[in-house]
Amino acid sequence: xxxxxxxxxxxxxxxxxxxxxxxxxxxxxxxxxxxxxxxxxxxxxxxxxxxxxxxxxxxxxxxxxxxxxxxxxxxxxxxxxxxxxxxxxxxxxxxxxxxxxxxxxxxxxxxxxxxxxxxxxxxxxxxxxxxxxxxxxxxxxxxxxxxxxxxxxxxxxxxxxxxxxxxxxxxxxxxxxxxxxxxxxxxxxxxxxxxxxxxxxxxxxxxxxxxxxxxxxxxxxxxxxxxxxxxxxxxxxxxxxxxxxxxxxxxxxxxxxxxxxxxxxxxxxxxxxxxxxxxxxxxxxxxxxxxxxxxxxxxxxxxxxxxxxxxxx
Length: 313
Description:
313 residues; mainly alpha; globular
């Protein structure tokens, strides 16, 4: 229902001739830069995943991991879910280890990424004019929520084991014994070295794969923006766009771009064009993994025979 409403907003609320005009004047050198930065961002995410996997006793090469990561992105782009890519990475990685441990690593990868994004999103509130906050008081509530999340993330550097212990205790008190037992296996990842390195890898990814790449995309569409306020806005827009309230965040991403970049004076049509074009380009980039996927499947590198029989595939 929400997806349909957001698609309806896109169809009825956007001046599509203006979108076509924006695309007609596209600067292709910035599109090439966008694709390059996206690939670098995917490589950074692969290195973070590889680091966490090795910390958990798994092993895979950087190139194979890179294409497996892209394969997960391909699944996310073309299937009605954002979990399918994580499930694929879990199955692919578990060929060299325990399936439940692989699930935990992918989950930890996601959680530390969201934690990092919550910190970076605070930058948005440093560029908002004070009068804007007074006109929209709910933004103050949102800023307070982000600040609370950021504090928890920072405290996690020193208190991660205790925070995990508190969560496990609460789960046991409400009857979530099995979930508590499962999450308790995250304890080795609460060490300061792993936690901090995870946050640093995530920060590098968001800076390159989200911040700089989308700055290049907006430049390609003719937007006149400076880098610092753009970074503050793109991180918050990305955080909101990832709220799982529609299929493949269809409509949510476009609305988020239109709303938050409106504070920087970006027209609705340009913001929506950037959101839609980024979808198309990311789909194209994920296609790079298709030959690897087919070749690996042919060589039985994705689902080894023993696991294939176990899974009933």
